[in-house]
Structure formats: C-alpha cells, structure tokens
Amino acid sequence: MRAKSRRLFVLDTNVLMHDPTAIFRFAEHDIYLPMVVLEELDANKKGLSEAARNTRQASRFLDDLIRGVTKAQIDAGLPIPSARTDNHGKQPPAGRLYFQTRSLGSGLPDNLPGHGADNLILGQTLALQQEHPQTRVVLVSKDINLRIKAAVVGVHAEDYYNDKTMEDADVLYTGSARLSADFWEQHGRDMRSWKEAERTWYELSGPAVADWHVNEFVYEDSAAGIEALVRRMHDGAATLELVRDFRSDRHSVWGVTARNREQNFALNLLMDPEIDCVTILGPAGTGKTLLALAAGLVQTLERNRYAEIIMTRVTIPLGEDIGFLPGTEEEKMEPWMGALMDNLEVLTRSAEGGAWGRAATNDLLRNRIKIRSMNFMRGRTFLSRYIIVDEAQNLTPKQMKALITRAGPGSKLVALGNIAQIDTPYLTETTSGLTYVVNRFRGWQHSGHVTLLRGERSRLADYASEQL
Among 310, 320, 342, which residue's Cα sits nearest to residue 415? Predict the structure, then answer.
C-alpha cells in the first residue's frame, strides 16, 4: 500500500451502483474492492433500472482497467486514470485500484452476528485497518446502517460525497436577491437608464454587482420598489431590465395571474423566448405546475411558439406500488399525471359555453398536451416542444442530463420540484439532479431559476405545510 499521506478507500457496492465513475473520483488516493462487491455487482447487473445500468457501466470500467494485465500487476495494484486534467491538459497522478486477491481475517467482534455482504465488507475493512496501521483506511458507503455498524466496531466510514453539488441545501441558489436599503446611494451615482420597445433598462456598477448572476432577479422589499432581471454582466457593470408585472389581469397568462413576487418572477422566465431552461423549486401548493402549464398553453396555442407541450415525470410511488397498469404509454402514465389533470381543471374553469364549452376546451388541450414516460426518452429529439418535467427532484444528475439533452432547436425545458420531497433511494437534497442543474446552469444567459416560497393552494394546505 501507499505512504502515510495517502488514504485507502474501501468501496461498498451501492457507491458504484449510484455512480459508476466513483473509482475515478478519489484523486491520488487508493481504492480497495472486496470480492463480495464484485459478487453483488454481478447479482445486480440485470434489468432496465438506473441502478442496473450503472452496475453494468461500473463493470465495464473495471474490465477496461484489468484488460491485458497480469496477476502480479493486479496484486501490486492497478493505476487509476484521473477523471480530470490540470491547466496544461494533462491528467494528474491518481491512486491505485486493489482487488481482494487473498483471504483476510475478519476481525469482527463476536457480538456482530450473521455473514451478510455488509458484514463481509466491514470485516475486510477492519482486517485492512489492522494489517496496515500506518494507512488511513476509510469505508465509503451510501448505506447509513453500515456506516453506523462501522462506527460501532471502530472503522472510519463516510458517505459518498463526490456527486454533491453543495454542502447544504439551505444555501441553494434562489434565483433572486433583495437590494439593501441604501442600494441607490451606493449604486445610483453613475447609473444609466433608457427605454427600448416599452421595456426599461438600467446599467449600473458597484459593490453589490459582483455577487449577481445573469438572469438573477433583484428587488426592493417595498410596495413601490424596483423588480428587475440581470440581463448582462460586463466589466464590473450589470444591465438590468424591469420585469413585466403578471400580477395584473391585463397581463394574465391563460387567465392566471401571479399572486406574489416569486410567482411573477417565474412567469417572466417561463414567457421569455430567450430562456431555454427554467428550474422552479418550491413546496407543495406554491403554483409550480399551474404556472408552467399556463405559460406553455399561451405560447403553444396562442403564439404558436411551440408545436406541443410534453409532460413527463419519474414514476416513483409515494406508498406501495399499485402493480401492472394496462393500456398505451399515455394511458399508463395517466395515474402519475394527476397534477396535470388538476391544473387543467383550474385553467378551463372559466371556459365559455358551460359544461359543453369546458369539455370542448379540454379535448383541444389534450390534443396539444402529450404525456410521455421517461423510460423511452433515450435517443429522442424534441423539436419546438415545451417540455415540463414534474417531480424533477427524484431524478439523478445522470438522468437529468439525459433528459435535458433531448431538447432540440426551438424547445424549452421546465423542471419543477421540491427537494424536501425526494422518494428515490440514495438521493438527497444535495445529490438530486434538480439541485445539480440549478447549480451548474447558474449564470448561463439562456437559463433561469426561481424558488417559490409562499403557498397559494388553500389556507388548509398552507397551515399543514407549516405545522405538520
């Protein structure tokens, strides 16, 4: 094994099933794979799930590393190519990959019964720790209970952190910033303002500008305060555009008006043809789906900006699975699309012609709104489509990338979710694909993000969100 300064990481199977590139993510440190991990990878390789695909990819990476090497080279540890390059385009030195090539004493205490895979991995880690006292041996696992057992028997264990885009979800980019009370005193001296096509623009510089991002909203927390969108950042100066006020009936979107500041910000992003990707976070009842659907209907049916609306979501049940669903792809997806039906009911409530008029309007809308399963997205390209991804917090970063790259020319993707309601195993607020996109797309001139704060569903829903 390596010198003291390097660490030896023992990987649990679920780490590779979660991120098949994990073996390349430990910089110059060494990795050890117990034989039981290879057995578990083999047992979980079949199927069409994301975990099965990741398992097969991890096996391919291992096969590439081991191809053409001798038994002596395996015993000495295989060099791992680095996943990153330095400023000169070269790969920095990485660690070595060690497979379990001989039997190691377990070393587990007698009060730890059973011979399951977790206990075998724990025993191997404990034996390595005793065999190499000068090396810091770390067990890396996504399994909380295994990490607890490791702490009990004296093994240092950690979660897999490499895919976390930030340390704390509470500091996630909100998409808006409040201006200080003395903002204009500090920034108004060299300010320039003008009008273009009924839009008001400002150009200013100052200390607060350095913390802004392109397509971030800035506002004054007062009734008559300014609300603007940062359009450009250049040479320490920012160009602001006053936002449209969708809170008035005159600027309603398919009969929907914004009920608070954040909803107004969201509609500005959703109605902007220059914004290709919009992410909206918020708890239940904040209006995410309603706003996205209303903006899509206006731009699809009235302005002909998009050919149709495509709505999809990951099919993870809240409780027990209800089993096999008969019918076509769209019919199978309908039970998962209750949010779409509920919001369509709100949007068609004021249709003229009574019940017959509402039914006719519903039929028209259903012809322009397609429900698609994420299971069949790979390889597709959507041209001039308005794509709504509901419950996006349940997507992994890899799934989110695969979905966003389906958007072709003229398409717009809207990702909605609440990172406090994640149902996917091994995903957290900091590793969710929605968090990943918010963090990676921040500052890009064709993307925008807003976090909705206030529930507008009902007083019962608002009280339940706060108290339960």
Answer: 310
Tokens of 108: 């587990």
Give 424 or 62, the one with higher predicted confidence.
62
Upper half-sphere CA count for residue 457 (Cβ side, 13 Å): 21
Interval 4-50: pLDDT, tens: 467 899 999 989 988 888 888 887 889 999 999 999 999 988 887 77
Cβ-proximal residues to 217 (8 Å cutoff; 6+ apart), any chain: 175, 176, 177, 227, 228, 229, 230, 243, 265, 268, 450
Fold of 170-242: Elongation Factor Tu (Ef-tu); domain 3 (2.40.30)
Each residue of 84-138: pLDDT tens digit?
A: 544 444 555 578 899 988 877 766 766 666 568 888 888 888 888 888 888 899 9
Query: Which residues of the chain are in CATH 3.40.50.300 domains?
Result: 252-467
Question: Which residue from 308, 289, 300, 306 is spatially nearest to 414, judged by alpha carbons?
Answer: 289
Please give the structure tokens belonging to residue 436.
């990943």
Contacting residues for 283 by C-beta, under 8 A, at least 6 apart: 418, 420, 452, 455, 465
pTM for the full model? 0.70
Our measurement of the distance from residue 316's CA atom to the centroid of its chain's CA atoms, rounded to an integer in Å, reads 16
> Given its phi and psi angles, is residue 137 left (phi above 0), alpha (psi -120 to 50 degrees) or beta?
beta
Identity at 454, one-letter amino acid code: R
Q: Give the integer Cα–Cα distance in Å for 330 and 204.
A: 50
* Other beta carbons within 10 Å of 364: 13
DSSP H or E stretch at residue 243: none
Whose CA is closest to 157, among 278, 324, 9, 294?
Answer: 9
Topology of the domain comprising 7-158:
Rossmann fold (3.40.50)
- pLDDT at residue 1 greater than cutoff 60: no
Half-sphere exposure of 304 (CA within 13 A, CB side): 0
